[in-house]
Amino acid sequence: MVRTEREMTGIYGPVLFITNPSMGGFLNRYILGLIPVILVVFSLVVLESLRAVVNSFLPSLGKSLGGIIPDLPVVIGIFVFLISPVGIFLFFIYLGDVLHRIEVWTGAALTLMLSGIAAFILGPGMNMPVLTTEYLFTLLHWIAYLVQPFCLIAAAIVLIGIELFRRSIRYTITRDAVIITGGIWTQVENIIPIHQGEKIIVVQGWAGRFFHTGTVIPGGQVFGHRDSDMGDYSLTGERAPGDHGVHTLSWQQGSRDPLVSLYGVRDPENVRMFLEKAQELQEGKNPE
Fold first, then answer.
1. Alpha-carbon distance 171 to 182, whole Å?
2. If you count DSSP H runs as helices and E runs as strands, how many of each does the chain have, helices first?
3. Burial letters for 35-56: b for 16+ Cβ neighbours within 10 Å, e otherwise?
4. CA 104 to chain centre
5. Bridge partners (DSSP) listed for residue 189
6. Using one digit for the tens of pLDDT, what is the confidence trace for 114-142?
7. In the chain, where are the structural domains located?
8. What is the torsional sign of CA 43, 44, 45, 48?
9. What is d(CA 190, CA 169) in angstroms, rounded to the nearest whole number?
10. What is the DSSP secondary-structure string of 140-208?
């Protein structure tokens, strides 16, 4: 839900500044959106390396194990394809989920899912009995081939999603609060009261300095989609007294979430100035 400026003025006081993340501030997310393409290149290198190793040892293995496992080359081929590309993509799906980077696991999952569906339709079909080594080998072989075109489709979908998400985000600084709205499927509204702000942190890396972008974190509690607290105590992992039901969040974690901080904004020092102005207005509104 995006509130009108008049509505926010009536609830949270005069609107001081409105902004949103810039494209330069989302550069690292755009790069992560290309993960499927990078994984395909890496998978091809690993696949060729594994094939070279297998080809060098296969003759000797065939002499020793050929009588025990008649279709040994097919079995080895299945294990090779399970490592690359399937295993590599599954690992990055897991890694993206652990790191809470949706751009990483979404791109890898889309590539593997689309390739698997297409391989099932275009691959062995009804020509081979299911649950045989030949069927599985052919299916995995098709997947290893199809990840190459589908990685481009997956990357394009992820990049479009990132851009739509960036455009949906809106940061509004008022006298009483910072209002953060955004979301593609579900519109989220988070409120950071100005009077609870403990400090203002500006995070700006080398890319941020080049593009004049950065992330501004007004420390304190965030109320909305998921109540969080980015107070001083969260830096040491301690919980504040009486914060039952509130998710503790360090400023390092908050700096990566566009819905709890002013992420990737242009001229972050200018944004910080408006936050400090809001704090001054709060002090004048509530004198000691």
1. 9
2. 10, 10
3. bbbebbeebeebbeebeeeeee
4. 6
5. 181
6. 999 999 888 766 566 677 888 889 999 99
7. 5-21+169-285, 30-165
8. positive
9. 11
10. HHHHHHHHHHHHHHHHHHHHHHHHHHHHH-EEEEESSEEEEEE-SSS-EEEEEEGGG---EEEE--HHH
